[in-house]
Design a protein that fits this description.
By secondary structure, the protein is of the alpha/beta class. It is 50% helix and 15% strand.
């Protein structure tokens, strides 16, 4: 089967890495998923391969949430990488903080307290659209993943 997209998940909590991977696979079966337990491991993966979307926990060990050091480090090293912030802090639901994360370069920010497959599907869709716009190429993977997301959303309405 051709891989339609790839997703790198960086979170220090094993349970959340597993749950996010399950959600991503349910949203788009067959997607290439890699999980990392630390920012350093995630940055290594970003150096080795191209990832369609990065799901990044802000509350990683030794990383400040304000300012969002993990997000800053990824953007410094990989400014074109579409990033969806997934945080254990309910602060990302605060409009001002959410907007700040978008200004730093995140495509979207989701609180783990309110994460759902539907919200994650929307965030991934935004990430793919942003990647396609930035490159100037209409990726077939974007169309395929969007179709898979629409099918998923239709089945769960």
């Amino acid at each position: 089967m051709t891989q339609i997209a790839s997703c790198l998940i960086v979170d220090d909590d094993a349970s959340w890495r597993k749950l996010l991977a399950i959600y991503v696979d349910q949203i788009s079966p067959g997607v290439t998923i890699r999980v990392c337990a630390s920012l350093e491991e995630g940055l290594e993966q970003l150096q080795r391969a191209s990832w369609t979307v990065l799901l990044l926990d802000l509350g990683l060990p030794r990383m400040s949430v304000r300012p969002p050091q993990a997000l800053e480090r990824v953007i410094e090293a990989h400014p074109e990488q579409p990033i969806v912030v997934v945080s254990g802090s309910t602060d990302v639901d605060d409009t001002g903080i959410h907007i700040d994360l978008l200004r730093y370069g995140a495509v979207d920010a989701i609180s783990k307290c309110s994460v759902s497959r539907e919200h994650l599907a929307q965030a991934i869709r935004l990430a793919l659209q942003r990647a396609a716009r930035k490159s100037g190429v209409a990726y077939r993977a974007v169309d395929t993943l969007e179709a898979a997301i629409k099918d998923y959303e239709g089945d769960n309405s």
